[in-house]
Fold these 4 entries.
Entry 1:
Amino acid sequence: MKLHIDTTLNQEPAEFLCAPDETLLSALRNELGLTGTKEGCGTGDCGACSVLLDGRVVASCLVLAAEVQGRAVTTIEGIASGTTLHPLQTAFLKEAALQCGVCTPGFIVAAKALLDVNLDPTEEQVRYWLAGNLCRCTGYDKIVRAVLDAAANMRSTRA
Amino acid sequence: MLHGMTTTRYEAPGTVADALSVMAAHPGAMILAGGTDLLVQYQAGLRTPSAFIDVKRIPELMAIEADASGVTIGAAVAAADICAHPVIRAWWPGLVDGVQLIGSTQIQGRGSLGGNLCNGSPAADATGALIASGAVAHIAAPSGVRTVPVEQFVLAPGKTALAPGELLVSVRLPKPAAHTADAYQRLIPRTEMDIAVASVAVSITLDPSGLCTAARVVIGAVAPTPLLVPEAGAALAGTTLDAAALERAALAASAAARPIDDKRGTVAYRTTVVGVLTKRVAAIALSRAKER
């Protein structure tokens, strides 16, 4: 039997059907067609499936879809404002902080959660915050640099 | 879905009483808090609950309540909320030492204190500090509420004092006495995201002159359960935690250890390291207690 779930998805009301044991990752990709969220490991180790749940970064492979009833989910598709990229997305492009791109949505969503609470992180804070996001091709230097650049950019825009 | 013919239900009760009713109606159900262990085990086919009972809609399980005599932490409160709580940070820095080591940012946002306890791992990073600070588990059963000191909660790897139909509601930490502080450290072969090879939690109480009047030492990952070692605490009590006292406590911790050999470490290595950690962690707790 499928469950009917009402939620807020990328700032808009949304509803979907899911199996009681279906993960949020599966519902996003297979019920809602939001395939920007990637499955890497499926065990909460790699961070490719990172989404924001009520503003907090979580691994959507370790959340049941039914749990988001009445809550707010933000995926990579909800990070840009219309056709204007988020400063993190711009910085990832500028720094070439990606190669195959499978980890990138998770990195950007996780980094956004950091900048939402700390717009002036140290490199060490960025590295620890993103320690649950694995990249198998680019390595981490460009990614960390992109996050620090985006933060600097956002600080100067706000000032 | 994953297990073919069987249909696993999802239930999200809003009260402890409703949760107990749902548990009674579904004896094969499992409690879902952060899901960071359960959903991994479920997807690997290691657990096949008849229902997931999501307890995160129950206010008592999601609250941190501080009062004059201590703090009550709901069993489903996520690690990130514990580490951010100003009263917990001030009174139990050693608990924060441990909780902040549990997994990545993504895991911190979901993994709960109750889950860390109920998982029953000998290496659980939160459990040692809870025991060192004299925490008590509040358990709801159809017959009423009962309390169990945390050192009696974990019985064996994966086995707890919870009887079928019982629900861990919260953990209560009594406010530390004057000049009391805790600390926790674990040894892992890397800087992040691993399971302890050995760990130690210590709580120290000093008198105004700086003499230790009471100490609780808990060792982890070196026995089937986290272990309170009264002999190590006794070696520190009545001293200023001088080098000789720390050495006696270390020997007592090593003597109490009953580790296994596995890929993380040998019996000999764990036995030695738990002693070294005892000295280091007691020294951190001492310096924190002196500041109070």
Entry 2:
Amino acid sequence: MVKLEINGKPLQLDAPPDMPLLWVLRDVAGLTGTKYGCGMALCGACTVHLEGKAIRSCVTPVAAAAGKKIVTIEGIDAERVGRAVQQAWRELDVVQCGYCQSGQIMSATALLAANRQPSDADIDAAMNGNVCRCATYVRIRAAIHRAAELLAV
Amino acid sequence: MGIIQRIPSGTALSARIENVSRRNFLKQVGGLALGLYLAPVGADSGTAAPGSAGGGPAAAVDLEPDAFVRIGADDRVTVIAKHLEMGQGTYTGLATLIAEELDADWAQVTVEGAPADTVRYKNLLMGIQGTGGSTAIAESFEQMRKAGAAARAMLVAAAAQRWNVPASEITVERGVVEHRASKRKARFGELAAAAAAQPVPKEVRLKSPQAFKLIGRQRLPRKDSPAKTDGSAIYTQDFKLPEMLVAVVAHPPRFWGGIKRVDASAAKALPGVVAVIPYAGKPGAFQNGVAVLSHNTWHAWKGRDALKIEWDDSGFKLGSEEIFARYRELAAKPGLIARRDGDAQSALASDTAAKVIEAEYEFPFLAHSSMEPMNCLVRLGDGTCEIWNGEQLQTADQAAVAALLGIPAEKVTIHQLYAGGSFGRRANPQADYVLEAVAIAQAARAHGIEAPIKLVWTREDDTRGGWYRPAYLHRVRAALDVHGAPLAWHQRIVGQSILKGSPFEKVLIRNGIDETSVEGAADLPYDIPNLQVELATPEDIAVPVQWWRSVGHTHTAYVTETLIDELAIAAGKDPYAFRRTLLARQPRHRGVLELAAAKADWHRPLAPGAAGARRGRGIAVHKSFNSYVAQVAEVTIARDGQFKVDRVVCAVDCGLAINPDVVRAQMEGGIGYGLAAALHSAITLKDGVVEQANFNTYPPLRIDEMPAVEVHIVSSAEHPTGVGEPGVPPLAPAVANALYAATGKRLRKLPFDPSELKV
């Protein structure tokens, strides 16, 4: 049994300590918004927040998250920054297939939480680990700038 | 997918496949639903004449209750999409067409995927239900609008009856039906039940384009945006059934290899592993394998890794080098003729050939590498089979599953889910991963396991699992006459056939020529008096291949658009002006070429880069899937040859743009997808074993490599054509031409090797 706090809710889940957080979220907690893409921290589809930091849940053993605050895409709208990012993503219709976008949004939210006015170079650096095979990158960049505008108000 | 759009309706494929699942579906819908099925007016309605967007005379429709639109008492308009949403915006596009003629409020419209049904949901250009060849909007343009118009007419008729006023005095706007004179109004939901009881109109009048409110609107929010930004969108990876088991599989290291011995003891000893199930593949369709079943994906994965399998040595054993060596031998000999104008070989040998360019091009195998690796959920019943999948070839897969199980096609139900990308992969001509999932479920049942089974490939399985864009080799000779005008063009293409051995073979291979191997070359648009295109199709290469976003155009456009550039330079002409002259009889090619050049300031010198950096600009134009795209690429190259594509200016003519913002998105995405391949992508084999596995060895494009993209859409009233694929083909040649402009080096092998560009 492992004790986790996911999206503000304390949970006790039956999972071995070495199981990656990704599979605990998806197959045990039933939160499928966080995606599997590579299993090796190469694509960012599995990005969640652990104590406010963007991490790759596919290579994070659940034991490393025990007792810590986890936020997934399902809970990102509880935060002002997360809501702004979601709004910007919708205003600009960033998504295509959408499969990577949970991870993109989690990385973008972590970036904006730390840096309210990111430059293109800041965005490229922060988002480099998030792959989008539909290549929605032009809009991801624009949407992060748009979210920064929304947050500046 | 390739030239699927040329499959005539009513082919053997569609005749063979029947399904009555819609009838069951109707029952679930219940009495409040208003549904309409509009049979196609004719097999060619998707390629209707220019101007058919207009209202004109009332369009004859053959209406049946049920199918594309439901209106609930809650006011919700549900569009039933017969096409897969894999990111290309079809759900939004199909909904736009229906909502336009229905005069619905965009906010009240939602979309759900249709079940597999050849009769009701066939692609009018394919004859089966399927999404590909960039046909979704092209083939639905009239059918969906008629569905919307008929639903509107029934709502109006219901209101006229209720208010006892003439239908002609009733207006409909944004989901509200109104009789202004008597100041009466009703929402769709209030009329839905009464409307369902109305006779289905025999004919409907479609709007004239001037009256369009949604079609062509610059910003119409995508229907899949909300669910794809809050984690609630459900892909196959996410869909669960009670008791479902996940299957993670081990495949032979070589394609079509077999299994000698399986030691499952270590795997079975692991926690969570429910069973280990070897299963037989089907030659040419899917591989042999061993599945590890668990309730948890991670446990199944660990179990798979703990298997000790002795594979037999019977698989395909050639490496990429040997494959290309064979292709080179084939390229030295005449192939089958795909196009012949004049006499290219004589012209090349004649004295009039003042300058001759000879070149050989190599294109590797390419994996689609969609973000969601292949997966499929199967529940076997008593003589039935249910499938949950992001389905791109619904009724072909349905028929293949039925054949594998020995049950009628109508006993196979397919539930449509979002696909996390596909780029053609989920339209496998042999239904490979779908059949594999079914075979595992069958084998599990033989072991007493009745639970639904979800096959889940890992990234490595997906990269190594085959069904690649075929490797190709082109050998070309082209000549200019003394005046610098193109005299002759002789092109030999060597590569595996995608269609051979598939259900599409009979329709799409003509005189031995697989059109998907030569499309984009055999229809070269330039005025060249002596033109010959040949094809050699090797039969002994057993690497599984299939269509990959823009199919044959992925390689043909590279050759045609870099070689025409080379001819322009050899003639001492500007590459844009040279093309423009040779496209005098191709107004739509010329239209996008001129637009892209103008928007990119082609005639102004490119701003210089930082000290030591070289900059260049290149152009390419290509027609695919009846859409025309020109792109101008700007590059900056460092001394070591590393380069960045800074900007791509893109002009597209896709006829009437239904959703301009989706068109822009597809051009942006096509550019990124094409650039990933040009920069990074190659599947290579050594002794038959694929050398790549994950994103570290098959690298995707990342955000810092994405150029700025500008998309300009040609204003057009022509019938809409596709946008999912046509953005891809011009990108690599435009970049290659830009690299040439900056360095004087012609790159003839994909992906690009920056070391060739070193100072």
Entry 3:
Amino acid sequence: MNNDKKKSKSDLCSPSENIEEKLRDLRSMLTHAREIEKSTQTLVHSLQERSINYGSYLQQIKTENKFIKNIQQLENPNMGISVKRMSVARKQLFVLYIQELTNREMLSQFLIGPILKYDQAAPLDIDILHNSIINLDDVTVDSAKEKTLDYILKGYSVIIVDDNEEEYLVANTIKIEKRTTQSPEIEQTLWGSRDAFTENINSNLSLIRYRIKDPSLIIYKCLIGERTKTNVAVVYIDDIANQEYVNKVIKKINSINTDGILETGMVQKFLLNNTFDLFPQTGLIEKSATACQCILEGKICILVEGSNLSLIAPKTFFEFFVSSDDNYGYMYLGILAKLLRFISAFCYLSLSSLYIAIVAFHFDILPPQYALAMAVSRATVPFNAFTEVLIMEIATEILRESSIRIPKNIGPTIGIVGAIVIGQAAVSAGLISPLVIIITSLSTMCSFVIPDNLVINPFRIMKFMLLVFTGILGLFGFTMGLNIIFINLVSQSSFGIPYFSPLAPFNFSDLKNFILGDLTLAKKRPGFLKTPDNTRL
Amino acid sequence: MSNRQLAFILFGIMFGYGSIGLPKALAENAATGGWVSILIATLLALISTTILVYLGMTHQNKTFYDYSKELSEKYTATILTLLYIVFMFIMFTLINKLSSDVFKQTILRNTPNWALITVFLITAYYAVIKGIDTIARLCEVYGLIIILFGVVIHFIAFTQGDLIRMQPFFVAEDLANYFDGAIKAKLAFSGMAIFSAIPFIKKQNHTIYIYSAMMLLLIAMLYIIQFESSIAVMGIDSIVFYRDALFTAIRRVDVPSLQFLRRLDAIFIISFIISIFLNITLFVYGTVFHLSKLLPKVSFRLLAFAVLSLSFLVCQLPMSFDEGANLLETASLAGGLILNPVNLILLLLSKVKKSDKKVC
Amino acid sequence: MTKKYVSLLLVIMLPTLLLTGCWDYHDINMTNISISTGVDIVNGQIEYTGEVAKIAPAQAKGNENGGGGIGVYNFYAYGKDLEQARAAFDAGVPYPHFLGAARAVIFSTSYAKQSIAPYLHRIAQINDYRKTILPVISRDHPAELFKLKVESDISVAFLIEDMMSSLTKQGKAIYPTVGHLLSDDDIKTIGELIPYVGIEEGSIKYLGLAVLKNLKMVGTINLKDTSGVVYLLAKKPSITENLPGIENKNNTFSLLTSLKKRTFNTDYVDGKLIINIDMNFDATLNYQYYTESTDEKKLKVLEDLVAQSIQGKIIKIIAMSQKEFDCDFIGFAKYFRAQHPLIYRKINWEESYRNADFFVNIQVNIHNLNLADPNARTLYFK
């Protein structure tokens, strides 16, 4: 830059006639140029300051080592690779790592520390480093030059000896931010273990391994996501799970072609790709004990790095209604609970529609007293029953949706506001009949009875469909609406298993085991899973 | 397809529309001995079901068009399959039209007929394109529900009726009338034709004879319970005046101790709607399946859509309920009279072929 | 692609076709809920009266009794025949009718004498009318009945229906429904019985039974004579029989009978109809006016006396049906038809019934003294 300015100065001087004038011009231009220079300098300075990152230091290293050169070529300034340069026993060593991914305490204590303390006569080389110096368990020797960057990006530390162009060392110093194992949030049981999965796939796998010490427990690992390179593990027991389903699942997982997988739900989305199936065919499980139980049953569990939920496939409709403690709790209570859950699901789906069918179409199916009571309860309501129910259903859905988003510490307040405003005020203003309040709140309560909430979500939509059907054609529309839902339900299959088993196709012993749900009585695994080893006891 | 599913398919296609007028038909022809007529009709139905099942079982994994082509020639097979198509088409179209009439007259007074017909047809279309597996599963679950509801409703109705109205149970001199009644009950026992559209597999279905016989017996039991409970409530002299005899009988029952279910209509209507839905769906499936055998190049969905649209148009033809009901009865009787001999001849032909092979 | 278009077409078609009208949609509070109807003949015109529920909102009633109240208002309409009266009624109401909540239908004596068949057939064929509704015949004009202020129940119809159903539950009356009447009428050879009510001392009372022949009223049976009918027809008759004391003439035994078994055996011998009525009762000695000691012998005598009393009542009723009303309102024809179907088809039932022989055989067992011990003694009295 300075050269340019000098050049321009000389250009200006030579042909001048009116020197005075030109000198003045020149001076002003000079000051101007100085200003420009100053500002560019500050700009450059600030730019340099900003980019005093580890990458720039990496670029400054002058070496002929091909590994380093390779990284220097690939490296983009903001990747953030740190380099620790050491000169020990006449040897130049480089440790490459990424600060954010690396356990730096471990790095300096067990890797850099011992190396710097090296005072033997023998020249330092990869073998000595590997075998006698580095205090870490997971250290390997590699020679592939294209893999170095991958290692670094995963959080490993790569140790390169300057004059060794054949091999380098890779040390596992991965640091991962993780929660400690906590109690489950969505899958709550009264009598059950409290260890839920966390976002760390390894600790999740360790939770499963810890419970199932079977040598044939298989953990199939693969990487998916072009950019995220997420670890996904498929866990099953080799001689229990049906190989056909396992292959289907693995094939589907391997065929996932996307740039990023961040959650279990994303994998689930790719596993099920029929848009017209209304109901979920896989289960999301949070508790490790439940996951193990499913694996023992012959199912396949899919764990995704960075997600605290595991995926269970295949899953049939009825299994959504089983809570894990049904199997070892008091048997008769389990039967009652399952019955209650089915009744609740039915109520949630149909209570408001039935109300419309009765109040607006077939009041003659009710005994006279009930008909009169209904008429009285609706006496002041200005809307017709259909509108009334629709308003209330939408209001409860709003309350429900908002209660998920509301910060925890003001949640109860909003609950009270919702209850008072919508319940009390609407009734006393005569806008909504008390019966509708009872029906909508009861049906909302019903929806929380089902242990696995995934299955309730389709009901939330279909409830409105049923409402419209009933509003048009009364009990006939109601029945046909249920019919359509039902056809969809029985036509589905989860990885080849009929979704409505064991009721359709009917299997008596499976159905018995499902209803009783008692561990000691169910001697066989469910037949529809077609497990090679089907005896449990 | 398991035996159980096949049996429930039989249940699904038989039990439904035929039951609503059955008490009237039996009371007219066989008075209180109607149950004998039902048993005779069951026996007749058992024979024709067995013939069809036998044909299906001797020709593994084949349906009517395939084996009739094998036993005769392509031209005859096409005509015979067309017979089935026409029969099933008339059956489901009329069942749809008449049951929509019944619903219109009883629960939805102002709703136009075409709305009910359309809803039935569209739902049936949805089920049919999902395939026979879905329909079979549907039959299994709905069958259980219908049986359960039927038994409960009619046992409750029994408690409200008079035993004396059901007597005399049997009059030997009326035997001829009982046979008349059995022929009138044909409508309630038509539908085994669906077995012509379902392939059998010997390994899985070798006990299907027993299953179908048991299922027919179960259907007969249900009909008997329905018939006896409705005449216990209304008496044969009164029931003959009502074309929707079963429904009328249910509406005459009121059990105060059941609280809000004291009037049984709601449950009955629901189970009746789903049983009629099964009737229609299975007949539609049979029609479309046979048609797709004749026209293998056209997609199943398109055929189903075409058949249902045609059925919708036929339903719009002006026809009084009585005309329709008489036509349906005639169609079911004619179907039985034409299709059973056809099946019997095919059966004999296959026997002959078998023995030919043995001789060779 | 065509597949997709077809399903898309269907998805669009269904709602558009259906949403063009909610044909049958009608809210319950936008109907006239009929509680009862009364049919009468006044000055040669049909008078059509009844009660319609007045649906009061919960607040309007104030806080006295909490919830909302159901009141009724009466209506009156006149016309040359039933249809005209009906049309006159329809012309003055705000909403369409809903008949499914009707509790009772009340006929006046003058209308019943003409025949209640038209109205019953109307109930039978109109879909929302319940067929289990209670028909009654009123001695006084239904209009006057409806004018009475009922203190003990919501309205007149509720009172009548509750009264009859509770009496029937106790085994002291019969509760025929419209459905029963129609079924019996269709048999052609038998008559029917309907509760008969009227105003006594300013309130509505159950007065007995009205006898119908081919749905035309031919006479009435007084309340005190109805126990014979109840013994013959009720599902579980349970009637108090009072007998004078055996030793102490001032005393009265009050016994509650309850039916154990009832069989009607019919026969047709030499052109004569024979009907055997066998009944077996259990009886409870409720109380005595004055305590009189009892022993087995005495109880035996009591049993005979009760049996005689019951027998007398039944014979009286049968005599009434054969002579006074000339109508088989108990419905023996049903039993005869069930037992001898072929003979029934040949004979003229009315003719044979008129001359039928009845054998009434009653057995009563008293083995329940209602936990009392009339034979008790102490050291101070014997």
Entry 4:
Amino acid sequence: MYTEILGLVLMYGLVILLAIPLGRYIGKVFSYESTWLDRIFDPLDRLIFRLSGVDAKKEMTWQQHLVAMLVINCCWLVISLFVLTNMAWLPLNPDGNPSMSGDLAFNTAVSFVTNTNLQHYSGETGLSYLGQLTLMLWQFISAATGIAVCAVVFMAMKEKTTDKLGNFYSFFVRSATRILLPLAFIVAALLVFNGVPMTFEGKADMITLQGDSVQVSRGPVAAFVAIKQLGTNGGGFFGVNSAHPLENPNYFTNIVETCSIFLIPIAMIFAFGYVLKRRKLALIIFGIMTLGFLLLLIPSVISEINGNPAISQMGIGQKAGSMEGKEVRFGAAASAYWAINTTCTSNGSVNAMHDSMTPLTGMFALLGMMVNSFYGGVGVGFLNFYIFIILAVFISGLMVGRTPEFLGKNRSRRNENRHDHCLAAPLAHPGRHGLVELSVCRKPNPIRGMAGQSRISRFQRNALRVHFGFCQQRQWI
Amino acid sequence: MKTHFLPAIKLTILCAILFSGIYTCAIWGIAQLSPQHGKGEIIEIGQAFTSDRYFWSRPSAVGHNAAGSAGSNKGPSNPEYLAEVQARIDTFLAHHPGVSKSEIPADLVTAGGSGLDPHISVEAARVQVGRVARVRQLPEDRVAGIVQQHTEGPLVGLFGPSRVNVLKLNLALDEIK
């Protein structure tokens, strides 16, 4: 058990050690400062922009960012629908897997384009290799969208103006090529050398020692798993995700994959500190997130190590902890660690079956998903946290009776609709891709005509005022 | 809207070439340099071992189907699940006279996450030594020695659990003349 706990300490330490320089690098990428990878990626980006006819230098307002993001997402949806419903006759299908039905294809396409990665199919039988590679493309670019939108919010917090927030396409391409691609490359290379398959051949036949003949599913797994983990995507190549012995063969690959889950989410906080030149604020945010993360993590690990009480009652020794749905090579502690990591960051990949975990772990995993900003998903985790900051600033502004301010920016009545959105946002739980987040970022003219939403939040505001008035009367605050 | 449409399509096609095409091929190329040439380590796939001649592997929710991995996903207090565990305990005790309930490690009566777990815990291997030695008519020390040889310790001796690969262990058993 001692070595299992030491494994967790190593994984956490490793991530922090890597996230600090990576955050600095991401900050440089967004600030358009020179980095040592420019030599490769400057020509590549120029080529991409020239061929796609995008003017990457044009500054956009938040509305233009929104339209650009929605249009390109629509485009991805159509392509995935086509591939998924026609896999049977398209190339790269050595196992002869069938096409998806329309409804399943729609479910899968929407889920992967929005970085959700909900899977109502099993990878071994439900997808061809072309289908897998198409979904892998969304794993790259939906994550890049999240990071790009986060970059826009960084700009909004930094710049004095509101109509010059950088260029969406530029942030998007830079996130994909300069952040996700090199990291995915390194992780995939580590995985293939540790027994994760990367082949285009179909199932392997084998005869077991007891004489049964068995077919073993394979495929281009390593490339897929790397970006699945890094982009907080989570959709597995195989049905059981990273619990599969070919998707996550040993404790070393488990360390690599676990670290990949929240490397970029943590690095984004340090990137924020770098871009805004507010390192102290970034450290405070990091501290709060870490505290929340540990509060979920520690009881979960303890609860899994102690095992399932119902099985203890049967008289079985549970020295290794609760083992239903867990793999022996990872053990109970590393499985619980992954569970909290993956739910806090909205990754969703698993190395053990969460339904079989003890009730406390299940609860903390759910809580991690709901808060979605104890580090949170790539880009969007920070955006969710930003909503909490604005909320806190607004509420404290009411408490002390001053105009709320954050980063020197006035959160006054003139912009009150923004607070309406902020207050409504945690209730509505914004999807992963920041439509709500975009509307809370600095905007010159508030959206009008959202009567329903502002009525709810006006009610909330009045309720808060009544509450604080009551507290002041009683001299509680 | 219109100004964004054409660039979006072109940008998507370029991304497909870069990420689904070039990146995938590059990783495939690197994989060819690896010991398994990217074909995956099939010995890492758990097999069903139910015969008394072999060390048993962990129970599987899918009967060790390597083309359709799955866990049971049963909740820890599910009565149906607990009945299943009880049945596994009874089977185990029937095949291992002299072993008491408290000596059975949990991993031998619970299903793994993938249904293809290639490993068992060291305790799970030790508790089966007596039976395997008896059926194969080998001295217990010798079988225990083979288990010891095939025990994989934590990563660099520090991180993660110890375990035994059941297939490698049983292959080694079969090699004894």
